Amino acid sequence: MLCIGALSGTSINAKEIILCDINGEKIKVLKYGAFDFYQDEKERLIRLVQGRAGELEEISLCNEIVGLSFAKSLKSFLDGVRFKPEVVGFHGQTIYHYESKNGVITYQIGEPLYIAKILGVPVVYDFRKSDIVAGGKGAPLSPIIHKILFGKISKKVSVVNLGGIANITYIKDGRILSAEDLGPANALSDFISKKRLGVDYDRFGKRASEGNLIERAFRETLKFIQKKKKGKKTLGYEIEEAKLYFFELTKDEKPSDALRTAVEISVKIISEAINSFRPDLCILCGGGTKNKFMVSRLKEEIKNPVLISDEVGVNSEFVEPILFAYLAYLRVKNIRIDMSKITGAKFRYLPGKMCLI
Ligand SMILES: Nc1ncnc2c1ncn2[C@@H]1O[C@H](COP(=O)(O)OP(=O)(O)O)[C@@H](O)[C@H]1O
Ligand SMILES: [Mg+2]
């Protein structure tokens, strides 16, 4: 079945779209594309997730903007593609995610009906809501695809997605043991790059590699994140808070030192989690794999072998988009998923909601 996956992650770096041919757990990628948001759309969304433009009108308007923007990108993505997809799995843009003692609040925007209208196929969306209603934390969702793509490569495998936020999946004998969000992967570094250097990210981690560790900012920010993370499986708004906290602590220091420190914070959090599991193999995926400096520092700190997913035959950018194509496939095939070991969902459920116009 031809299925599309579409998302924009917490980094708000691109609208990522993938076309896959899916048959059970056999997944073949046919086409991938990353589409930029218009600069004003992007700035609006960044303001929104930082909670400074949270008025009702702005949220409602951004819901339209994101839906229309994806619909347009999907249309051009499919130009020249001979076969029509049967379904689109659309994650949308998370603008808020917060886990507390009272439950999880999560909000992904992007009106899916615009996509259904322009492509004339059903759109499956609001995947995190269905997980929460089933008693889960709504995140992380990617472990389900980590297991399929990487679960059989070795006996004990850890898969780490290096997005704005890092999340980890622990797999043994092809079965998921557990999964969780860990902390920032690129979030701090991207924020410093934007605020201090006016660029979206530190290309290949070059500036960070030239910088020195700022001890106090490293210690204090780690403490801040660890405190916020205590007892939680998922992260969202806490990372927005951590960005501001880290920025304040480093604003009078050299940008390259701030970037080096941002990388070291991520490396510390991620490597500690992996070293306590001691996998035979650790696989890294997500945009952070392009940050050569971060990857080299992770390889130094992680005691076990580390590979980038490209090295085991899966393009590291494809993993998250494939997830939403696969979840949409399951939804239209009426196959329920077991997320008990991943998000803590209490029963098997149909992922997402479906719409058609
Ligand atoms: N060439 C590169 N050098 C360094 N970092 C990169 C490069 N390309 C992408 N990245 C990092 O990857 C991030 C995007 O990763 P992605 O997996 O899409 O995250 P998310 O899921 O949060 O959107 C960028 O914000 C940036 O930090
Ligand atoms: Mg992204």
Structure described in brief:
The chain has helices at 39-49, 56-78, 112-119, 127-133, 143-150, 187-197, 206-210, 215-229, 237-250, 255-277, 292-301, 319-332; strands spanning 2-8, 15-23, 26-35, 87-100, 103-109, 123-125, 156-162, 165-172, 175-184, 281-285, 306-308, 353-355. By secondary structure, it is an alpha/beta fold.
The 3D shape can be described as globular
Low-pLDDT ranges: none
Structural class: alpha/beta
The number of helices is 12
Overall pLDDT confidence: 97
Largest sheet: 7 strands, mixed
Number of strands: 12
What are the defining features of this structure?
357 residues; alpha/beta; seven-stranded mixed sheet; five-stranded mixed sheet; 12 strands; globular; binds adenosine-5'-diphosphate; binds magnesium ion
